Amino acid sequence: MPTPDKQAVVDVLVIGGGNAALCAALMAREAGASVLLLEAAPREWRGGNSAHTRNLRCMHDAPQDVLVDAYTEEEYWQDLLKVTGGLTNERLARRVIRDSSTCRPWMRSHGVHFQPSLSGALHTARTNAFFMGGGKALVNAYFRSAEKLGVQVRYNAPVNRLEIADDHFVAAHVQVQRPNGSTGTERITARACVLAAGGFESNRDWLREAWGTNERGETPSDNFLIRGTKFNQGTLLRHLLNDHGADVIGDPTQAHMVAIDARAPLYDGGICTRIDCVSLGVVVNREAQRFYDEGEDFWPKRYAIWGRLVARQPGQIAYSIIDAKAIGRFMPPVFPGVKANSLKELAGQLGLDGNTFMRTLNNYNNACQAGTFDHTALDNCHTEGVLPAKTHWARPIDTAPFYAYALRPGVTFTYLGLKTDETAAVRFGDVPSDNLFVAGEMMAGNVLGKGYTAGVGMSIGTAFGRIAGMQSAQAATKSGASHANA
């Protein structure tokens, strides 16, 4: 084992640089602890996946500034219960929900500003508070506030292992660049530590291990795109699970996975790669067949199931098909879609079998029942006599020009993580550590066993980041007192 170059000492060490990590660092510092935050990325890429976010799902019992009407605890819980299919810890989920109703004044005190829901963001004006300037503005505000308060921040500082004795955090080993260009290790001791280093979605080998090979002999994960940072390699998560026996939660194949523009970059495409017209048309695979109900529920509640749906299709690709009637009813993608004056022409441009494509579209069109179309409600426009059914917003695709958008699975973050409780403590053999805590994507699987609803990831990160920050400061105080009395 290499000898560390040097050793640093701090009250609270925060590992990570996204929303959860920053909330933890700010809370710990406000509580009086000295804090060092280690961000694996360089400064220009700081913020992790949080830099790509745009809103926070908030409980509120009455209208509040940018939020309209009310969104009660019970409605929030039912929405979460529905998308997770019951794979959630109700106690922790309700803690997140309740904390979402009180966190925004604190966020504002650290420079975060909010704005009303975007006009193209369907059905979120009541449930989600949008950050002015998006997630990048949020993390920049938090970093500015942290540095002003005296939080030490170091970039290009990936941590590859921890020293843990009897479930008690002792030290972290961080990679450093020596003046001669070689790589060294620095040992950092702390009275308490918060882990907020994200999931493993950018680790291609781990994705292949989790997803394996399908019945067609394909390795599905090879066709996954990563919506966020390339720095979420899951190094510490693997280390905690394999080398220290930390308690685990979640399925390694479950993730916040969205059907995104197939032309998106491998990493950091972010929110702009989403294709939001699925509920306004039909989706077919490369065999020109429909495979799921496009109108099952409002898009913010169901958009995150489509990544996994596409991941199960041949070649992990699908095509969202709409006609001219849908234009102007959804947030337009960054890149224009394939456009044609006939459905047959559209099939040709997509390289799909024309006869099968036309049979699929004709069957769908003929199955559409007359109703009152209303994309802001669960309307009565549905299909009959075709599988899969389309239960809402079903209108014939019959008005030129026609458009198609190729879709690939886009992974935001993985749900395999560290099991925790309301104190955010990492658990070993169901025993909570007294000074090692976890927040954000590294523990989101406690609340999200599967599925997703817009803005809940930021709710989890904010709630447990703040909890972990407070708990770590208290643990550091106890540790300092015990050392002083020793």
UniProtKB/TrEMBL annotation:
GO terms for molecular function: oxidoreductase activity. Keywords: FAD, Flavoprotein, Oxidoreductase. It comes from the Bacteria. SUPFAM superfamilies: FAD/NAD(P)-binding domain, Succinate dehydrogenase/fumarate reductase flavoprotein, catalytic domain. Residues 11-447 form the FAD-dependent oxidoreductase 2 FAD-binding domain. InterPro entries: CobZ (IPR012831), FAD-dep_OxRdtase_2_FAD-bd (IPR003953), FAD-oxidoreductase_2 (IPR050315), FAD/NAD-bd_sf (IPR036188), Succ_DH/fumarate_Rdtase_cat_sf (IPR027477). Transmembrane segments: none annotated. Its cofactor is FAD. The keyword Repeat does not apply. This is Precorrin 3B synthase CobZ.
